[in-house]
Design brief:
There is one protein chain. With 122 residues, this protein is mainly alpha-helical. The protein has 5 helices and no strands. The chain starts with a helix and ends in an 11-residue tail after the last helix.
């Protein structure tokens, strides 16, 4: 689900970059906003299932510190890039970056050794 979300985010960013009208721009924004909860839940679920119980607090706090800590930097960098390159270039760059992340993630995932899945209790 996480990899599918990244792919669809790249599609949505390309839609927004090439939007000739407000309708396509709104559709790309809608896709982006609808995917966020799906991505977040799948990522947190995976992290919780892969982390031993005695490390849950440390892993969660490290993740939140890093992810929430860089948000202001991303906002500042995004503002500078929009001001200097324009929104279309920024969206095309975001789409390209997400495709690179997707390809790298699939490549890394394909090289991981097969392990036993954690019990989910379902």
């Amino acid at each position: 689900m996480a990899l599918g979300s990244v792919f669809l985010w790249a599609v949505a960013a390309a839609m927004m970059a090439s939007a000739p009208s407000i309708i396509l721009l709104t559709a790309g924004l809608l896709i982006t906003n609808l995917l966020w909860p799906i991505f977040a839940v799948s990522l947190v679920t995976y992290r919780l299932s892969a982390t031993p119980d005695h490390l849950q607090g440390r892993v969660n706090s490290a993740f939140r510190t890093l992810s929430f800590g860089v948000e202001p930097l991303g906002l500042a960098l995004g503002g500078v890039l929009i001001a200097s390159l324009g929104p279309r270039s920024l969206f095309w760059g975001a789409a390209a970056g997400m495709i690179v992340i997707l390809v790298g993630s699939v490549w890394a995932w394909s090289r991981m050794p097969a392990t036993e899945e954690p019990a989910t209790g379902l």
